[in-house]
Amino acid sequence: MYEFHLFVCVNERDQPKQGCRDRQAHDLVELFREKIKAQAIPATCRVNKSGCLGKCAQGPVVVLYPQNQWFFKVTAEKVDEILATFLHV
Ligand code: FES
């Protein structure tokens, strides 16, 4: 059991529409996982790749459960800030 689940949309859309995959969402997944592992808290939070979360124009989209907290236009620079909202690191 994990205390938190972070869902990162990695969906690909048919061109010319852009999905989160086109906005480097896979890099975000790896970055979230690396940061969580580096802080020795991997059992606390699970980072999941997700399909489309329905907010494609605001991608990359990340949602945190159970808080149901959404993050839009996520960049690598925002990863620490997002983790700090619930991990208190
Ligand atoms: S492709 Fe990511 S929210 Fe739709």
Task: Please tag this protein with its features.
4 strands; elongated; Glutaredoxin; alpha+beta; 26% helix
Characterize the overall form.
elongated
**Assigned CATH class:** Alpha Beta
Number of structural domains: 1
* CATH topology call: Glutaredoxin
What's the mean pLDDT score?
Answer: 94
The portion of residues assigned to helices is 25-40%
Enumerate the spans where pLDDT stays under 50 for 5 or more consecutive residues.
none
Describe this structure in words.
This protein has one domain: 3-Layer(aba) Sandwich (Glutaredoxin). It is built from two helices and four strands, in the order βαβββα. The protein has helices at 25-38, 79-87, and strands spanning 4-9, 45-50, 62-65, 69-71. The protein has a four-stranded mixed beta sheet with strand order 2-1-3-4, covered by helices on one side.
Give a brief description:
The protein is of the alpha+beta class and 89 residues long. It contains two helices and four strands, in the order βαβββα.
Produce the secondary structure layout.
Blueprint (H helix, E strand, L loop, with lengths): L3 E6 L15 H14 L6 E6 L11 E4 L3 E3 L7 H9 L2
Parallel strand pairs: 1-2
Antiparallel strand pairs: 1-3, 3-4
The structure holds FE2/S2 (inorganic) cluster.
